[in-house]
Amino acid sequence: MKKLDIIYEDKNILVINKPAKILTISDGKTEHTLYSAAREYVKKQHKSNKIFIVHRLDKDTSGIILFAKNESLKKELQTNWNKIATRYYLAIVEGKLPTKKGVIKEYLKESKTHQVYSTKNKSGEYAETCYEVLNETKHNSLVHVEIKTGKKNQIRVAFSNLGNPLIGDKKYGSTTNPLKRLGLHASYLKVKIKDKEYEFKSKTPESFKFYEKKC
């Protein structure tokens, strides 16, 4: 990975625009991750500095990641994350959605092979995904997404279940991959930290901009 694309930094947090095709944190096999790069960055400032994961993005998803610089803040943020964080994404899906705006509510479970799926059984983890279509091309839709809950693969499963999987998401039923990556970007984060509200925006990937045009 090239130089970190830092959106914001202060004594408590480090906010980075994550590129696609890099893990947020190691899967036990990969050593070079966004976390390892962030850790190296803060240690260059002072060898005693530390960095802590608050939330994650999938390897092939780009966009905003927030790290805490101390463990107590990390725990505080993780405990209240769904209450204090507003998260928007840009998604590019296959086809045209049945409605231009909606809310997807479902319960999610994970198989032994790490495939997340929805179930009618309320013993699963509740996931709520709000969406609005921004633009449509001949084969795809550009969608604004807000997640009310932060569950693993939540957005990917939600659109797959509608019959409109994210482009490049073979795991959840996509048959096209025009961008050679997953069609998902974390574009906006608003979060309250110690009674102060922070708002962060990330640049739209160049490859997504075609889908912003009227076609």
Textual characterization of the structure:
The chain is α+β, with helices and mostly antiparallel strands and 215 residues long. It is built from three helices and eleven strands; from the N terminus they run ββαββαβββββαββ. Strands 1, 2, 3, 4, 5, 6, 7, 8, 9, 10 and 11 form an eleven-stranded mixed β-sheet that branches. A hairpin with a 3-residue loop joins strand 8 and strand 9. The radius of gyration is 17 Å and the shape is globular. The mean pLDDT is 94.
Whole-angstrom Rg: 17 Å
Structural class: alpha+beta
Strand composition percent: 35-45%
Uncertain regions spanning at least 5 consecutive residues: none
Helix tally? 3
Largest sheet: 11 strands, mixed
| Separation of the first and last Cα atoms | 33 Å
* Percent in helix: 10-25%
Average pLDDT: 94
Strand/helix succession: EEHEEHEEEEEHEE
| Count of distinct strands | 11
Outline: globular
Lay out the secondary structure.
Blueprint (H helix, E strand, L loop, with lengths): L5 E4 L3 E6 L15 H12 L6 E2 L8 E7 L2 H14 E10 L6 E10 L5 E4 L5 E12 L3 E8 L6 H9 L21 E10 L2 E6 L14
Parallel strand pairs: 4-10
Antiparallel strand pairs: 1-2, 2-4, 3-4, 5-9, 5-10, 6-7, 6-8, 8-9, 10-11
